[in-house]
Amino acid sequence: MLALWVLAALQSGPAPDVTARVDRSHVTAGDDLLLTIRARTRSAAPVTLALPALTGFTVVGSREVTEVTLEALGGPVRTTTRELELRAQRPGALVIGPVRVEQGGRRVTTAALTVTVDSARAGLATAVSPIARRLIEAATPPTHDEKGDHVGLSVLLPGDSVLVGQQLDVLAVAWFPRELRARLRRAPILTLQTPEGVWSYPGAAPSEVVASRLVRGRWLDLFVAHEAVFPLAPGRIFIPPATVEYAVPATFSFFSREDQYSLRSDTVPVHVLPLPGAPAAAGDPPAVAQGLTLDLRLDPPNGRVGEPIAVAVTLTGVGNVALWPEPAIAWPPGFRSYPGETGTRIEARDGRIAGAKTFRYLVMPDSAGSFQLPAVRYPYYDVASGDAATATLAPRVLMVAAGLESRAPRALPPLARGRGPVWTDELAHDLVPWGWLVLFVGPPLLAWLWRRRRPAAPMRVVVAAPAPLSRIGRAEREFHALLASHVPDAEARDGDGLGRALRAAGVESAVADHVMRLRDRLRAARYGPRAPGDAAQLASELEQVLRVLGGDPARTGRRGREGRVVAAAVLAAAACATLGAVARPAAAQALGAEALYEAGALRAAADSFAARAAAQPRVPAHWYNLGATLYRAGADGKASAAWAIAARLAPRDETVRRARELLPPPDAPSEPLFVVGFATPGEWALVTAVLWGAMWMVAAGGRRRVVLATVALATAATAGLAVREALRRGQPVAIVVHPATSVRVAPYGSASAAATVEAGAALLVDRALGGWLEVHRQDGVRGWVLAAEVTRL
Question: How many other C-beta atoms lie within 10 A of the C-beta of residue 187?
């Protein structure tokens, strides 16, 4: 019993300390405020909070937290906090009743809170605007009974159709007979719900009478709720039913009970029409406005290299300001743009929603000079004229001075003079796809056919070796060949007219006669009796005649070769002359970039090399020269990207390797992303194709299995190297081109930076979203960067 009494005493304890307060006691209709209820107690018993009726407010959020703290003298203290986010629905002095807190049989009540709610802000449509008054004046009052206690409720619209993005005013009007309205102790509650598929600007629901009408001899007092909506897409929308709630006293006594009444209107359909002349293709619709103007401000008006310029572009006009899209601004080359916050200011102009929307940017120039900001054109649909219109901003000149910390240009080895891609990689590229298919299928097919064929029994053919010619035999053969060259007619060579034919061919008479006698002696030596001495003498005479007539075999061979050499030289000279005449303008153009580079015009030279690289992206010399120019100009990030591309195209080029040593990666995690192998994937594929063919040749020839296994292993190794290099280069790598680039936590300019990387750092790209890239790296760097801040390999 004693233990129970002690426990009950502990649970009862002192009464809890309860407070209730609001963060604001003066708000505007439609604004939010925070009601905080805090109960502090030393008892372990549970705490129960009883909220009052929140008339005139809507609960849009709640949060409850219980904390236990230990105090040195009093022991544990339990604090229960409940926060309610309330939205004021109507103007007036709204009262938040007392809050009751119960714990262990004890009850604590707080004081009531009063909140003053003003009418809707000036930026929203009000019930007394000219548009609302015209709708009320043109409205048809509902029918009433003879007693005059019938309340009417109707929803008023300017029409049953509206254009996409055009303002549509929706009014809920409650018609109260004056006799009934005079009996009410408090103003009725009129609620107008927002339809789906629209952008709404809620107005106020005034507690006072907005207008009065005399209908069939009776006065009707009107309570109005007003809302301006903007349809977002063509089609059909439905205005939800409006409701009105009021309480009528049962008797005229002040203490009499009240009868609660609620009235609900019908749903009203509205047809939303597309903009006239709008394209049917998918995409963001143009802005819908009236009298739209465009303004651009620079702070400072002129800048310096490396220092940001604050740019503010402001759209001003009548329309749905919140949904006006961002204007397209073409920044000059060498300018980096970072989007900032977007500000919106709403105001009312004769009942229409109007205001201004400001887009802010930070622009960073990279080079000094005079630049022109191009004209900005902002197309929109003008509701007043019913046609398309354009807000324009004239071009302006922006002067950019040199930075305060300028650095001298860097020196670099001479430029590369190569004009074509690497032939091995180009050959591999040209074989796609049919050449590779033939190289893959052809060798095994040929080996299979070779193994299937049945070789026939070999026939041995004995060919008698020709007897070696004697000295006179060789001379005779050359003699007859010489005669045939001078006298093509065979009959003339056999007859007595040989001398005349030789003289006609330009041979001297004595030589011609001697040749004819030699012919006769050769015939006599061949067909008559043979004598060794006569044969030797005859061979000597034949050789002398051949030397005289130019028939020496060695001499003839030399003349032939000399003739071919001379002919080749002549043809080569002609070809060079022709090609030189054709290529002279191209050479003059090609030397332009090199001349600019030598003269120090680095920006112009970089533009020229970049144009070459874009026209011939497989030529490593273009990328190397572009990187050299950018390196001299101090653009380390862009130079690293250009040299990385050159290293991928020519991995064994010593010039490119030495150049890359000048710009090592700024951090260790970037180094693996810059690595290139000994050869390109195409070159490894060519080596694999050669080994593949050799393997099938070995297999078809029936060589030893050791040889076949060795060639097969080499083929597999080179194929693996090709795949490895292709996978390495298939990674979506992006190289940062600007110093101190922020990797942001979200794809917008005002997002906080998760990390900062230096120029030349490499990142892996996950996906693209608009002008942003989601990137990551193995050291934990992860976030979003602008696509203009990196170069993708």
Answer: 17
